[in-house]
Write a structure and sequence with these properties.
The complex is a heterodimer of chains A (421) and B (370). With 421 residues, chain A is mainly α. Chain A has helices spanning 2-31, 50-57, 59-92, 95-110, 113-130, 142-166, 171-179, 184-213, 218-221, 228-237, 242-278, 281-285, 298-319, 323-362, 384-396, 414-420. In chain B, the strands form four sheets. Chain B has a six-stranded mixed sheet, with helices on both faces. A five-stranded mixed barrel of chain B has the order 11-12-13-20-14. The interface between A and B is medium-sized, with 23 and 32 residues.
């Protein structure tokens, strides 16, 4: 019994953990397909792909993506090169200095990105002036500064990844190459670099992702080349739309796609290695029979499912027209709003009557109390009583769709204005 | 056998900070020889090998290969090829690419490399395995690939750094024979590093016994085994029983030693120490387990040892008797199994007999750790 309780708690814990990790992503992805103008999951209005269309018509977002890609590529090249140099240096340096060197190299990760951004800006501006270059020189170019600024700490990430692989490198391999007549450059190119390739690929992916999502540093250095994160931040300031959810969905989908692709490839390599081990000499010399791509490769199967699903969704999107549904929802909303206004009006009428009766009973004592005026064009929404009544209604009736914007009692619905007059 | 290129170490000193790894080594290795450096781990033998291959420069003295001073010449310019202790095969390259790496460096074509790889694979008895990865081979196969890779560079001197230590016993014994055969076939100088006296004795033309950076003795295997220079060489190479004592009387090439617990015994002074040992000197006498015979009870004299038997064991080819010895060490006696019956002596006193020529006397000195 105790054991089963433990097992259940583990599953519950896992469920909560994954909900916490993936819940926001799921919800954001779902909102990308809801026709509601505000990104939300409930109430579900209509399935729509319009937000994707809007996204791809947004020149600022597209330009941001373009800049992010350029800066990402630059950062990858610079960071991986610097990271590799740093990692190699770490293995070569005098052992007593190693710890100090490591700390210095790792420090940029611990420095706030904002500080790195400002210092990059200040430092290169000073260099620019020292060289007597104008404000339009490449040293004050947004792309250059952002690449340099981001690389200051992304290079450290890269170095960590590369050092991990380098520690597994047997220096005897380089010595063996030298012993067999290779120069140092040849030993590096033919032995060490191929060995480091997987780590270099990982470091490059890491560098690109770190560059792509960076905001803190970039916000100081982007100049005339705002990246995607900068554009998004500026957009959100003026209100969020489901187009941003659509972008998020695309990024999530791409991430899943590449993760699956990588997994499938790794699994494939593993299977090939096993097949090679089993193969006889003759088979190796000729053509070894390899297992088919999908056999025993779950990731590859998922990848295909994923691809098919994507094609289906895109196909549906081009053919699908949610116009009717959207019209229905609009109509329904209008009706609901009307109904609410009627109810409110009735309620208010009753309250007013009740209050008048009370006033009459209490006579002169309460005469100086201000009476709610009922003649404003806003349908009494600004009357304190109206607000109070509304709040009561909200708490008593949880079924009320939030589409009515709560406290304002549908005051901003154009229909209610019309009805009032 | 002097066709190959010889290697000479002249007054070679190698220091790491305050630590002296190699102390004044003088070695002449003839061309075409199979030469072994034998010593426990940490004795500096690998350091010597790295100095010969060019991975480190001597602090003092010279390394000469073919009579040429190698100072300042990098490992990639020396006519040596090194087989590393862990083999250091390139894990991402196929076997044939590994073997012909030295040709790739020289810019040979793929067809040329393939052809040479096939020749070498035939030589190491791995035909057709060229397309495998090193990780897909067994330990012994990898070993042979490493040898082929080194030979492909056509070195004048092949250096081997304990290449068999990672193999299991059977394979190790097989590879000993194979290495020796390969060496005789290619006729180049082999310098072999090992801590395994069996490997050194079976394969080498000459052996240098090393202890803590010092070369104790350079000689062929038989001499080292039968006529060691020092206590260390005597105790490190093969099994040996030690008797400590003071020299009582020197009689030409023989001497009488008064041992701590076995009375006065006679022994032959080892060749290198003849004329150097004097009466009153601390000395050590070594007798191999197989040099003893059981004598009749009560026999006394300067070549009889009486001791109590602690325990006995039957090893198959030999029957071992362990008796109380000097300084906590047991005396081991190995009697060949010739089908005779063995009596259990445990707890009894027995008298052991030896011939004077089998008892070797050297100055007292450091013994090899067990």
């Amino acid at each position: 019994m105790n054991n089963s309780f433990l097992r259940i708690s583990i599953w519950v814990y896992l469920a909560i953990f994954f909900l916490y990790l993936l819940g926001p992503l799921v919800i954001m992805s779902v909102t990308a397909f809801n026709s509601s103008a505000f990104p939300r999951m409930t109430p579900w209005e209509c399935l729509t792909f319009q937000w994707f269309g809007e996204l791809f018509q947004d020149q600022r977002i597209l330009n941001g993506i373009k800049n992010s890609l350029i800066i990402g590529a630059g950062t990858v090249v610079l960071s991986v090169a610097m990271g590799l140099a740093g990692a190699l240096m770490l293995t070569q340096i005098w052992p007593k200095l190693r710890a100090t060197y490591y700390t210095i190299i790792i420090a940029p990760i611990l420095i706030p990105g904002v500080v790195l951004g400002i210092s990059t800006l200040v430092f290169w501006d000073r260099i620019n002036r020292m060289l007597g270059l104008g404000a339009d020189s490449f040293l004050s170019n947004g792309i250059f500064l952002t690449v340099i600024g981001q690389s200051t700490f992304i290079a450290s990430y890269c170095m960590l990844v590369l050092v991990a692989r380098l520690q597994r490198y047997d220096i005897a391999l380089t010595e063996a190459a030298l012993d067999l007549g290779a120069s140092h450059a040849q030993a590096f190119r033919k032995i060490l670099l191929p060995f480091m390739r997987p780590a270099i690929a990982s470091a490059a992916v890491l560098a690109f992702l770190a560059s792509f999502e960076n905001y803190n540093t970039t916000t100081f250095t982007f100049g005339e080349y705002p990246t995607l994160t900068i554009e998004l931040a500026q957009k959100v300031r003026y209100g969020i739309t489901p187009a941003i959810s659509a972008l998020a969905f695309i990024i999530v989908a791409l991430t899943v796609f590449f993760a699956l692709l990588n997994e499938a490839k790794l699994k494939r390599q593993e299977l090939v290695a096993v097949a090679r081990k089993k193969a006889t000499v003759e088979e190796l010399a000729g053509k070894i029979k390899l297992p088919s791509f999908f056999a025993g490769n779950m990731a590859a199967v998922l990848l295909v499912v994923f691809a098919v699903a994507t094609i289906t969704v895109v196909g549906t999107a081009t053919a699908y027209n949610p116009g009717q549904c959207i019209a229905n929802v609009k109509e329904q909303k209008r009706l609901e709003a009307e109904q609410r206004i009627q109810e409110l009006r009735k309620q208010r009428e009753e309250q007013r009557k009740k209050r008048e009766a009370e006033a009459a009973e209490q006579g002169d004592a309460q005469q100086s109390a201000p009476k709610p005026s009922n003649n404003s064009g806003f349908g009494n929404v600004f009357a304190p009583n109206a607000l109070g009544g509304d709040a009561e209604e909200e708490s008593s009736d949880t079924e009320t769709p939030p589409s009515n914007n709560g406290g304002f009692g549908g005051a901003f619905d154009p229909n209610s204005l019309q009805n009032d007059q | 056998m002097s066709a190959g290129v010889g290697v000479d170490l002249e007054n070679l000193w190698i220091r790491f900070g305050d630590f002296v790894a190699v102390r004044d080594a003088n070695v002449n290795i003839n061309g075409g020889d199979f030469f072994s450096f034998l010593g426990p781990s940490g004795c500096g033998k690998t350091t010597i090998l790295r100095a010969v291959s060019g991975f480190l420069d001597p602090s003092e003295g010279k390394v000469l290969i073919g009579g040429k001073d190698m100072r300042g010449i990098g490992p990639n310019k020396r006519p040596t090829a090194l087989i590393f202790q862990n083999l250091a095969l390139f894990p991402l390259m196929k076997v044939w690419e590994n073997i012909t790496f030295s040709l790739e460096i020289k810019g040979a074509s793929t067809a040329e490399r393939r052809k040479r790889a096939d020749e070498l694979l035939d030589m190491i008895a791995l035909p057709g395995q060229g397309d495998k990865l090193p990780s897909e081979l067994s330990g012994g196969q990898r070993q042979r690939v490493a040898i082929a890779r080194a030979l492909c560079a056509e070195p004048d001197v092949l250096l081997l750094d304990e290449p068999l230590s990672a193999l299991d016993l059977k394979l190790r014994q097989h590879m000993r024979t194979e290495l020796r055969e390969i060496q005789q076939r290619v006729g180049i100088t082999f310098i072999y590093i090992t801590h395994d006296q069996g490997e050194a004795l079976t394969m080498s033309d000459n052996i240098a016994v090393m202890r803590a950076g010092v070369i104790d003795q350079i000689a062929d295997g038989k001499t080292i085994y039968n006529d060691p220079n020092t206590a260390f060489a005597a105790s490190f190479v093969g099994e040996n029983n030690v008797f400590r004592g003071k020299i009582k009387q020197v009689m030409g090439n023989e001497a009488l030693i008064s041992t701590n617990r076995s009375g006065d015994l006679v022994a032959r002074i080892s060749t290198a120490n003849q004329g150097k040992l004097n009466e009153g000197d601390d000395a050590m006498m070594f007798i191999r387990p197989e040099a003893f015979a059981i004598a009749a009870d009560g026999a006394t004299g300067d070549h009889f040892v009486t001791a109590r038997v602690n325990h006995e064991e039957f090893e198959g080819n030999v029957f071992n008797i362990f008796t109380e010895g000097d300084g906590g060490k047991e005396i081991k006696v190995s009697l060949p199994n010739l089908g005779q019956s063995f009596e259990d002596h445990t707890g009894q006193n027995i008298t052991l007999e030896y011939e004077t020529r089998n008892a070797v006397l050297v100055p007292a000195g450091e013994l090899a750790a067990e």
